[in-house]
Predict the 3D structure of the following.
Amino acid sequence: MTQSNEMNEQEEPTLYEVIGGEIRIRELVDRFYDLMELEAEFAGIRQMHPTPIDGSRDKLFWFLCGWMGGPDYFVERFGHPRLRARHMPFSIGLKERDQWLRCMAWAMKDVGIAEPIQVALMQSFFQTADWMRNREG
């Protein structure tokens, strides 16, 4: 096999690698939750989280690492994410969905995620956040 063929057969980098691995995902998650705690516009989703919010920070970090193609920390600790089932106890409508998405978009911008990656992530995040809704409005 020639060097050229070997290069063509290499795998594409995962989103986890492209973003910058654990350090960048932790930075994103921390900024997301910092904004949630600091900005009044996110009060609705903040009240759904426990105080202190450290456990929620860890769970989102663990989930995103695996979801982006890195280590499956969440699955190792809790099994299949079952996102909808895990969020069913919370009343999630359009307002909560949109607060979550706005907070994540702001966090991605603040930590310097490249715009094309932000766009792709927001499409995926929207689909998931909309699927999490369990009430109208």
The chain has nine helices and no strands. Residues 92 and 134 are 6 Å apart (CA to CA). The radius of gyration is 17 Å.
